[in-house]
Amino acid sequence: MDATSEKTDDMVGTGTSVMEPPVLMETGSANGFVPPPVVAPTPVVPVFVASPVSDSTGGIPDPATFVSNLANRLTAEIHKAVQGQDEVISAALVCLLTGGHGLFEGVPGTAKTLLMRSIAAACSAEFKRIQFTPDLMPSDIVGTNVFDMTTGGFNLKRGPVFAEIVLADEINRTPPKTQAALLEAMEERRVSVDGISNHLPPIFTVFATQNPVEYEGTYPLPEAQLDRFLLKMIVPYPSEEAENALLAAWDRGFKASDLQTAGIVPVASVADILAARACLVRVTMESKIITYILQIVRATRSHRQLTLGASPRAAVALLQASKTLALMRGRVFVNPDDVKQMALPVLRHRVLLKPEAEIEGVGADRVITSLLETVEVPR
Predict the structure, then answer these.
(1) Which of 11, 107, 216, 355 has the fewest CB atoms within 10 Å, measured from its CB?
(2) Phi and psi for 193 in degrees, rounded to 5?
(3) Model pLDDT, residue 361
(4) CA Rg, the chain, in Å?
(5) What pLDDT score does 21 carry?
(6) How confident is the chain (379 residues) per 10-residue block, as mean pLDDT?
(7) Residue 147 CB: number of other CB atoms within 10 A?
């Protein structure tokens, strides 16, 4: 199969893992993540003009308004193709606007590919899809040097990883050697081919998917690979209302393989995404909030049901994701609710359960939820 071909049969809706039932938090979400409210946007003119952005963070006088409006525009445009899935869409935007990568777990046919393609279309970004298979080689991802007869030298034939938004579809279906080809790219935004470093686009973002119910022929992602993902979202089945809207859209002629049938138009530019990321440094985080994040992360390292706790990178990820969520909600300061609601998506893939806990059917979400109840919330 062509590594960059696009999937045409994604539909809306997902399933949760059969290994652990979803655990509801106070927010009523299996992911523990509450998306910011979506404000009905002003009708968008199809011809999009990028917002003027300064190279410095001072170029945007009101970062909260800028980022929240940007998130609302993108959300409204994505909803033209993806029905429901509010918190999944919001989590994907948190990844994009933070500058991190996202892992989305759900059964096939649940609009994971459609979601990523819609995000790329809404922000005018180049999109590439890599279908991970057991015979995929690292060079199929990063590219290879090809001899040029005319010049007598070697030229790099770039792989799909050089796109701005990359979908690593069913990432756990390829061996660890090939999975490792993404490690340098995801962490340093560059890839090395024959000892030469090649920089990736500034907006470079990886969205990876995996199937929670089919394990034959799969290779579980190692902890080092999982730790590169800012968030991991469990994509649920859509509500009855959303699924009804999905069927109505298909009845009107919508096709997942053709985003033009959904009417998606660019409502942001790559420069806007980079400007939103630059706004993070202008978000205020009090010392007690930083201490709260630190206490949550360190508590995972001594929890009796965990054999591996969250790394320092997890603490940084929780801090950054909380800042982005605050901006998306129209604030330039982080409150404890932002941290608590990002804790599950940020930590669930970074902790390792003890064997006895798995035998008892205790999942990572349940452990983290109980842990959050023991850490004092700052006032």
Answers:
(1) 216
(2) -125, 120
(3) 82
(4) 20
(5) 42
(6) 44 40 45 62 42 51 94 95 92 96 90 93 94 92 87 86 94 89 90 88 94 77 90 91 92 89 92 96 95 96 91 95 97 96 95 88 90 92
(7) 9
Length of the chain: 379
The residue extents of the domains of the chain are 57-280
Cβ(224)–Cβ(183) under 8 Å?
yes
At 347 the three-state DSSP class reads helix
Distance (Å, whole) CA 40 – CA 38: 6
Q: CA 245 → CA 93, 254, 264, 347, distances in Å?
A: 22, 11, 17, 33
Separation in Å, CA 161 to CA 122, 141, 143, 294, 336: 20, 6, 8, 34, 36
Inter-CA distances, 361 with 145, 210, 357, 358, Å: 49, 21, 6, 5
Structure tokens that stand for 132 in this block: 């991970």
Fold of the CATH domain 57-280? Rossmann fold (3.40.50)
pTM of model > 0.85: no
